[in-house]
Design brief:
With 570 residues, the protein is an alpha/beta fold. The chain has 18 helices and 26 strands. The strands form five sheets. Strands 1, 2, 10, 11, 12, 13, 14, 15, 16, 17, 18, 19, 20 and 21 form a 14-stranded mixed β-sheet that branches. Strands 4-3-5-6-7 form a five-stranded parallel β-sheet. α3 (35-46) crosses α4 (68-85). The two termini are 46 Å apart.
Length: 570
C-alpha cells in the first residue's frame, strides 16, 4: 500500500469515474499531522532503502542519491543543529538555497521543529531582502554559498534587525555567519518527536510564502501543516507519479512550485524526485538528463516545452516517460501537438496559486486533455465560475474562478489567509468563497477555459511578476517621473515585462536611457523582473481620480500583437 492511501483510504485507481472521485475523495489525518514525521519518517521505517531523491550537480560531475532513511537521519541532524542555534517552534526562517539538496533537509528539519519555512529566490536584491525580513519578522536565514546571495544579504543585514541567526553553505566563510555543513555534521541523527508545548498541531502555520505584488508589496500567504496533504492531488493524481519511478519538475526552490513538484505529492506517491542543480536552462542538457535518469513523469511551464522543442527531441531516448504536465501559463495548441508528435504523450494541464494546491486539473484516467482547457475541479476542491453579482456564470460567460470554502471550513491545501493583512484576507475570503482573482469560463464540455488575471500580475517564462515592485524601483531613478509596468505578449516567454515611462524634464528619451533603466532594475531588485521592453510616452492613461490605467496599456499592446500575429490572446 502506498503511503498516500493512509490519508484517503483507497488507491487512486479505485474510483469508477471523475464524478465518483470528486464525490468520494476525502482526506483524513490526525490532529497532530506533521509531514516530516508521518510521511518521511514513516517511509524511513517501513521502506528505508527506497530511493527518494537523485541530486545532480550543475556540471553533472557529482551525483547524490538519498533514500527515505537518509532523509530522516539528515533532517534529524539539521533539526538538532537548528535548535542548538536557537531556532524554535514558530520562528520564521528564510531559505535561499537554489537547487541544493540541503533545501529538502532544511525544510524537513523546520517541519520537525515547528518553525515556519519561507522560500526565496537567490536573485533577490537589497529591496527584496529588507522588505521580506521586516514584513515577516524573520529570525534566521539559510543562504547558499554558491555565488553571491549571502554577500548581498550581508550588505543589507543592518536593515534586517530581526535576523539574529545567519547560516551559509559550501564553506563560504563570512564573519558572523554559521557554516551549515561543517557544523551540522557534528549533530546527532536522532530526533525525538516533540511533545507538550513544543509539539505541532495540524492547524499550526508551517509555511509563509510571498505572492507577486500588484498595487502594493507582496502579500504573505500562510499555510498550515495540512498543506502537504493537499498535494496528494498534485503528485498522485495530476502528475500521476509512478511508485518507484523518477519525477522531474524544473523549478528552483525559491518558488512554491518546487513544493508542488519536488516534495510533498511526489513522496506521498513514493516516487523519487530528480533535482538537477543547473544555472541556466539548456534544452539539450535537460533532455540528456531525462534520458540518463529514465524520468517517468515530467512537469514544466509551457515556455520550457517550447524551448525543449527547439532541440531535436528525437535524438534522446525518452521511452521511460509515461506522463507529462504543464501549468503556470496558457498551453499553446502548437506546443501540445508538437510534443505529442515527438514523444507520443499528451500534456495534462492544471491550475493553482501560491494560495492553493492543484485546484483545477485534467486528470489522467478520468478525463482527456483539450486544447485551451485547464480541466475541471480537482479532487477535494469545489471550484465555480462566479460573476460580479456573486452568481454562477452560464456556460461561455467569463467570471472569476472561486473556491467554495470559508476560513473555518476549507480543503487541505488552501491557505489560511495573509499574515498581518486582515484587509486582504477579508477581500479574498467572502460570500462563502475564496476568490482567486483569475478569470475563466466553462465551455460546452463543462471544462474550464482560462482567460487571465483580474489584477496585473505578469506571467513570464514561469515567473509571476507583480508590477508594483518594478515600478517602485524605477521611480527611484532620477530620470523617471511616472511609470506603468505591464505584460506584453511574447512568442517565447508568454509575456515580457514592459515599462511605459514618462521622463522628467531635462532627460532625453534614448536607447542609452533604456539600457540604463534596465540595468538599474537588475541591480535593485531580482533581475528576472527587469523590463525587456521600455516605451517612452508623454503621459500615462489615468482614471478620473488620477489612478494609472495599466489595463488600457496592456489591452492596446495585446490588440496590436493579435493583429500582427493573427492570434487571439485575451
Amino acid at each position: 500500500m502506498a503511503i498516500y492511501e493512509k490519508f484517503i483510504g483507497r488507491n487512486r485507481d479505485s474510483f469508477e469515474s471523475l464524478e465518483d472521485a470528486q464525490k468520494n475523495y476525502k482526506i483524513t489525518y490526525p490532529d497532530n499531522f506533521n509531514y516530516a514525521f508521518d510521511v518521511i519518517d514513516e517511509l524511513a521505517k517501513t521502506k528505508p532503502n527506497k530511493l527518494a531523491m537523485i541530486w545532480v550537480s550543475k556540471d553533472e560531475t557529482e551525483e547524490k542519491r538519498f533514500t527515505f532513511r537518509d532523509l530522516m537521519k539528515l533532517s534529524n541532524k539539521a533539526a538538532n543543529y537548528f535548535i542548538s542555534l536557537g531556532i524554535k517552534k514558530g520562528d520564521k526562517v528564510l531559505l535561499v538555497l537554489k537547487r541544493s539538496y540541503l533545501f529538502w533537509i532544511s525544510m524537513l528539519a523546520l517541519h520537525k521543529i515547528g518553525a515556519i519555512g519561507i522560500q526565496a529566490t537567490h536573485m533577490l536584491m537589497y529591496h527584496d531582502y529588507t522588505y521580506r525580513c521586516q514584513a515577516a519578522n524573520i529570525k534566521a536565514v539559510i543562504i547558499t554559498g554558491d555565488g553571491d546571495p549571502a554577500d548581498r544579504f550581508e550588505e543589507c543585514s543592518k536593515d534586517c534587525p530581526s535576523v539574529s541567526i545567519k547560516i551559509t553553505t559550501l564553506d563560504k566563510h563570512l564573519s558572523g555567519w554559521h557554516n551549515f555543513e561543517e557544523e551540522y555534521e557534528a549533530c546527532s541523527d536522532v530526533f525525538e518527536r516533540p511533545t507538550g508545548d513544543a509539539a505541532t498541531k495540524a492547524t499550526d502555520i508551517m509555511l509563509l510564502s510571498f505572492t507577486s505584488g500588484t498595487n502594493d508589496y507582496p502579500k504573505m500567504v500562510l499555510h498550515d501543516f495540512t498543506y502537504p496533504l493537499g498535494h496528494i492531488v498534485t503528485g498522485v493524481f495530476w502528475h500521476r507519479v509512478v511508485d518507484g519511478g523518477v519525477h522531474f519538475t524544473i523549478s528552483d526552490t525559491g518558488w512554491l512550485k518546487s513544493l508542488w513538484g519536488k516534495f510533498y505529492g511526489q513522496w506521498l506517491g513514493e516516487s523519487a524526485v530528480l533535482v538537477y542543480d543547473f544555472e541556466k536552462f539548456n534544452a539539450d542538457k535537460i533532455l540528456g538528463i531525462m534520458e540518463k535518469y529514465k524520468v517517468t513523469t515530467f512537469c514544466v511551464p509551457p515556455t520550457m516545452y517550447r524551448l525543449l522543442l527547439q532541440s531535436d527531441v528525437s535524438k534522446y531516448d525518452l521511452s521511460s516517460l509515461v506522463h507529462c504536465n504543464a501549468a503556470g501559463e496558457a498551453l499553446n495548441p502548437e506546443i501540445f501537438n508538437t510534443w505529442k508528435a515527438a514523444t507520443g504523450l499528451e500534456i495534462y494541464e492544471g491550475f493553482g496559486q501560491t494560495e492553493t494546491t492543484c485546484c483545477i486539473a485534467t486528470l489522467y484516467g478520468y478525463d482527456k486533455p483539450k486544447s485551451g482547457s485547464i480541466g475541471k475541479s480537482a479532487l477535494g476542491y469545489q471550484t465555480e465560475i462566479v460573476n460580479e453579482d456573486g452568481q454562477l456564470c452560464m456556460p461561455g460567460e467569463v467570471g472569476e474562478i472561486c473556491i467554495k470554502a470559508t476560513l473555518d471550513n476549507k480543503p487541505c491545501g488552501l491557505c489560511c489567509g495573509y499574515y498581518n493583512n486582515p484587509e486582504a484576507t477579508a477581500e479574498s475570503w467572502r460570500d462563502g468563497y475564496y476568490h482567486t482573482g483569475d478569470k475563466a469560463f466553462i465551455d460546452e464540455n463543462k471544462k474550464i477555459q482560462y482567460v487571465g488575471r483580474n489584477d496585473d500580475v505578469i506571467k513570464s517564462s514561469g515567473y509571476r511578476i507583480g508590477p508594483f515592485e518594478v515600478e517602485s524601483v524605477l521611480l527611484e531613478h532620477p530620470a523617471v517621473l511616472e511609470v506603468a509596468v505591464t505584460g506584453i505578449p511574447d512568442p517565447v516567454r508568454g509575456f515580457n515585462v514592459k515599462a511605459t515611462i514618462v521622463v522628467k524634464n531635462g532627460y532625453v528619451e534614448s536607447d542609452e536611457l533604456k539600457k540604463e533603466l534596465q540595468d538599474y532594475v537588475k541591480h535593485n531588485t531580482a533581475p528576472y523582473k527587469y523590463p525587456r521592453v521600455i516605451e517612452f510616452v508623454k503621459e500615462l492613461p489615468k482614471t478620473f481620480n488620477g489612478k494609472i490605467r495599466r489595463t488600457e496599456i496592456r489591452q492596446a499592446d495585446i490588440a496590436k500583437y493579435n493583429a500582427e500575429h493573427g492570434t487571439h490572446i485575451m
